[in-house]
Amino acid sequence: MKEFKNKTAVITGAANGFGFEVAKECARREMKVVMADIDGEDLKKSSQVVKDLGAEVLAVEMDTSVFEEMEDLAKKALDAFGSVDLLFNNAGVVTSGSIWEMPLKDWEWTMGVNVWGMMYGLRVFVPIMLKQKTPCHIVNVSSVAGLLTTPGMPAYHTTKFAVVGMTEAANYQLQAMNANIKMSLYCPGFVQTDLHNCDKRRPERFAIDDDPYYQSASYKTGLAKAKHVITTGIPINSVAQSVFTGIEEEQFYILTHPQYNPVIGLRVKSMLEGKNPSAELFRR
């Protein structure tokens, strides 16, 4: 996809972080922008910023983990602008803690947004794009956490590895069809986003309650670590350009943190050499 002017972008998780940055870049490229997010208050503010950049904007408050709401998003996008040319499948959340301590609702929430929501985006928008028969592009947001593992975030790693597998497989299927849709897989490391504050955007069915876990040292330590690594990550202002360069060059893997490449390579090398994973790597 090389031409962007007057094309339509749909962006999930658009009120903050990566989604907001991409929405602003879409406006600069004279695209029509559909901004979707569960946080209605932040969405209102962010969509006004994008409008002020000159874009036609449709703001849709919705929950990507609910399939019917993803269908409704597509309907509203088509009703407003007539086509969908770019999907930035981005909405995500993070939880931390051991598998045996985390409440099941935290797993359900993380899987619902990071995996099911990503799949819903593909399931709803790919048929629309195929029917259009025009050059289209989908960017699925995973993470370097989908390419390597660490001790602290098993649920997050699980979902991000799933996104990598899902996107690679979908891309192969589209290639086999000689489809008009290209795909990219965005796998950033730590970036200065608002991800560590995602608890405030939990739907009621996943709300923090009186479960003792939420008063535990494990939960509080996880929150503190998430805040530290995100707030000390790279500035977010380079994100949109990396994404659009990937789209323009039809680049599948968009990796923005080369410092992790040796660790990713070591993981694969250890597998091929039959070596066991070792926690010593994280004690150095």
Which short descriptors sum up this protein?
single chain, about 280 residues, alpha/beta, Rossmann fold, seven-stranded parallel beta sheet, 8 helices, 7 strands
Mean pLDDT level: 93
Number of helices: 8
What name goes with the CATH superfamily?
Answer: NAD(P)-binding Rossmann-like Domain
Record the strand order, biggest sheet: 3-2-1-4-5-6-7
Approximate strand percentage:
5-15%
**Overall radius of gyration:** 19 Å
Note the run of SSEs as H and E. EHEHEHEHEHEHHEH
Number of strands: 7
Helix content: 40-55%
Shape: globular
Q: How many domains in all?
A: 1
Distance between the termini: 44 Å
Please give the largest β-sheet.
Answer: 7 strands, parallel
Structural class: alpha/beta
The second-level CATH architecture is 3-Layer(aba) Sandwich
Determine and state the CATH class.
Answer: Alpha Beta
CATH fold-level name: Rossmann fold
Name the poorly predicted regions: none
Pfam families: adh_short (PF00106)
Keywords: Oxidoreductase
Protein name: SDR family NAD(P)-dependent oxidoreductase
Family: Belongs to the short-chain dehydrogenases/reductases (SDR) family.
